[in-house]
Specification:
The structure is a homodimer. Chain A contains twelve helices and 16 strands. By secondary structure, chain A is an alpha+beta fold. Chain A folds into two domains: about 200 residues, CV3147-like domain (CV3147-like fold, 3-Layer(aba) Sandwich); about 120 residues, CV3147-like (Beta Barrel). In chain A, strands 1, 2, 3, 4, 5, 6, 7, 8 and 9 form a nine-stranded mixed beta sheet that branches. Chain A has a seven-stranded antiparallel beta sheet with strand order 14-13-12-11-10-16-15, with no helix packed on it. In chain A, strand 4, helix 5 and strand 5 form a beta-alpha-beta unit. In chain A, about 55% of the residues are buried. The mean pLDDT of chain A is about 95.
Chain lengths: ~375, ~375
């Protein structure tokens, strides 16, 4: 266990920025979670991150995170022990102790929740997650895609309500029931699910994503400190591609079934003068079109940064007139298999006419 | 246990009619449950009904029933073991065997569900229930009114989905979460809840209501066989009052939040010629007004019978032009305490301006 990385107070700002970028517009705001983590560290508790390959095969690992509408999470602030109580509920259900936690999605607030809970419970968090980004629905986790049952799953809210989804017909039913439950709870709650053995986690988790968020955020902070272009920094760090710089000239966004859905329309400027862009949203940015032609879509990452500061913009704070840079980052190979594309390809989001063409890492200059 | 009453095949038609009358328009249709009970009896299984005073103080009793929109229960037919699986889920949660079942509500389909499950599980059903009629929401059970927690509660549907509500802030939250869950499951599911000791059940249950449904139904069947007036028979059997005979001249009814809500408008005929009646609905009949003046309201029972056949009409089969008899039956004293009226009085249904004046049993000729 000498490869355990301790997350320090000074790392948290970087993790926040990196997680927000990987959130591709969704996943909830990591800001409050960052401060709760900081509070735990200042109390003397530890956030120990263990690499996937240090995880014992028989370790019991639980996937943890918040569920709900990101826009609600900003106003209905957590009590702070929701994830811990969800963890305890699943331990009660299994009648044994959980050895380590893993984030259901590294993108957004759910990067912080398992670190917070790890500090509270005194167990480590695994360096990896179930999405390598953020996605709006739970069956979109790699655990679920690669054959693990998400049940039992335990949900807890700030009102002491605890619900256990003990069994479901299939993975989509976990999402359906959990979504209905979280809406009844006020559209924000914690969920601990998919108790897994280390052996499976090593195969199914997107690896090293806490470290990835930390390095990415650190690179952005360094660029800011040295007055370098933060957008170029993100592109270099993640071997990504700048799709367009443009102004938001139209924005449709509505809350439907607990999700933020909509479209952004862009008018390009700079090198993109005269071009028109469009982005589809379901909590996250799903598809990018240039002049009516699809260029990038899920599961690859579409990231929106403020064109001036380079800071990530989440779907709930988009507004008319914003000047943004739209970036595309390649997703992990675990998300690109035929099996994964059935669950997180464009057809799964209501775009059966689109076919996923992976961003080419070699062409982008990556490995 | 020599006072145990065995429900026979020949009793089931009577229980069906009695339960439908006590359902005051709601509670779901007991027809399919009757046939499932019959099937169990024909297989050689037993429906043993034990009187409240025969129940051991330390017996573990679980309240059982269907939850959902009655109108859905008619079309989305149960697999038949939903309640049994809800029972097994609560046994797993408590890590012990349940000794006896009790109906959450005697009115409608939930008279049959515990008898069916008792036959399947080989345990007795208690002669009593949690409402003495039907009500639309779960916190309206006497267990809940008289201080018992409804959690843990276990829900099961026909798709193998099982959800456990392990803890809630209060009783209304059980209803809120269970309602959201059942809507996600397709608006019909089974729920086992409120694990109680016999000692509490003896104090809080509305007593003898299986026997009551059976005798009431038997009286109606006898009256039909001897060509006597079935409406007069119901009134005599339950010491009730005929409020109005009339024709439905207007009917507003809509499904809202999983409930059938609406109003019926009546034009009186016979002795009620020239009068106008109105009834408010939330799954059950809640309030009766004559010429704009409230005469009877919850928790007393408002029963609608077909004016010609005397058979009960449930809210989902009401239609324009129907000729109906509106009856009022006094509810049990357990539903009339100040504590009960807070939960099941007119204010709880959105009529804070109405005050409950109990139907007077003495005046009606009762004890």
């Amino acid at each position: 266990m000498d490869k355990v990385r301790k997350i320090e107070d000074s790392d948290l700002d970087a993790v926040e920025i990196g997680a927000a970028i990987l959130g591709t517009g969704g996943g909830g705001n990591p800001y409050i979670g960052k401060w709760r983590c900081r509070q735990e560290l200042r109390k003397g508790n530890k956030i120990d991150v263990i690499p996937l390959d240090e995880l014992p095969d028989d370790a019991l690992v639980v996937s943890l995170g918040g569920i709900g509408a990101p826009v609600v999470g900003v106003e209905k602030i957590e009590r702070g022990d929701e994830c811990l109580r969800a963890l305890r509920a699943i331990e009660q259900e299994l009648d044994c102790k959980v050895d380590a936690l893993i984030s259901s999605e590294i993108g957004g607030a759910n990067a912080m929740e398992p670190m917070l809970t790890a500090a509270q419970a005194g167990i480590p968090v695994v360096d990896g997650d179930g999405m390598g980004r953020a996605f709006p629905e739970m069956q979109m986790c790699t655990w679920s895609i690669y054959g693990h049952k998400s049940t039992p799953a335990a949900m807890a809210d700030e009102k002491d309500n605890v619900v256990v989804i003990r069994n479901t017909r299939d993975e989509v039913w976990v999402e359906t029931i959990a979504r209905a439950t979280v809406v009844s709870m006020g559209a924000a709650a914690a969920i601990a699910m998919a108790p897994m053995r280390g052996e499976f986690v090593k195969k199914a988790a997107v690896p090293n994503t806490i470290t990835q968020a930390l390095s990415l955020g650190q690179a952005v902070l360094d660029a800011q400190a040295r007055n370098l272009d933060p957008i170029a920094t993100v592109l270099k760090q993640e071997t990504g591609k700048l799709l367009m710089t443009g102004k938001i000239v139209d924005l449709e966004r509505h809350l439907k079934g607990g999700f933020a859905r909509g479209h952004i329309h862009l008018e390009g400027f700079g090198n993109n003068q005269g071009e028109r862009g469009e982005i589809a949203i379901q909590n996250e940015f799903l598809v990018f079109w240039r002049d009516g032609e699809m260029e990038v879509c899920v599961p690859d990452l579409i990231v929106v940064l403020d064109a001036d500061t380079g800071l990530p913009i989440t779907t709930e704070v988009l507004r008319y007139g914003q000047r943004i840079a739209v970036l595309a980052l390649p997703c992990h190979d675990l998300l690109r298999t035929p099996r994964a594309l059935e669950v997180i390809g464009p057809a799964a989001f209501g775009y059966p006419e689109l076919s996923f063409t992976p961003l080419d890492r070699a062409e982008l200059g990556g490995a």
